[in-house]
Write the structure tokens for this entry.
Amino acid sequence: MKIIGVSASPRKNQSTYYALQQCLEEITLSAKSAGKNIEVEIVDLAGMKISGCISCDACKKDLVCSQKDDFQELIPKFADPEIAGIIIASPVYMGCMSSQAKAFIDRSVLFRRNRFMFRNKVGGAIAVGGSRNGGQELTIQAIHAGMMIHDMIIVGNDNHFGGMVWGNHPDGYKADATGITTARNLGRRMAEVALMIS
Ligand SMILES: Cc1cc2nc3c(=O)[nH]c(=O)nc-3n(C[C@H](O)[C@H](O)[C@H](O)COP(=O)(O)O)c2cc1C
């Protein structure tokens, strides 16, 4: 069993990536304490070129995409039946998700059009904003909307919506203990529900 985290910041190794790492670390620990193993992996969209969907409808016939960009390498990766869950982590841009996150979600329509391949996979979201309350909740809800359209099973951070992190914490994003705890709790819920379903 595997859970994949998508880091949808254009910046490598910054706050979004860190929050996602924390979440995945908790998945590993939670699975271990339940006597199980869940493999985790980060797909980092930073540096990848993924354009928006052009609605050519090639994917209505088969699991293919007509656009020859870096999304091509993600098609076999996300088609892996071992994947039990997907987390999308995005920075907050103008109150919502990054264009990298949106392009990834829009292009993922090919998995829906080919037998709802994400159906019943566990889904979770993380949003990192420069402000404490800069649109994290809306960003998470927008990511959840895409996951619902895939008929995924959405989980939060045990009482709210998911990982909500303050990137510009005065002592640095790693010092945002409250926010990092939400990301870790999302990981715990992801593991719990993925194991329950399996
Ligand atoms: C184009 C742009 C728009 C942004 N809009 C918001 C916003 O609406 N709300 C917010 O809290 N932060 C906003 N930010 C700040 C980022 O969310 C913040 O710096 C975040 O930590 C970046 O994630 P990263 O460190 O993984 O790159 C914006 C940043 C950029 C570049």
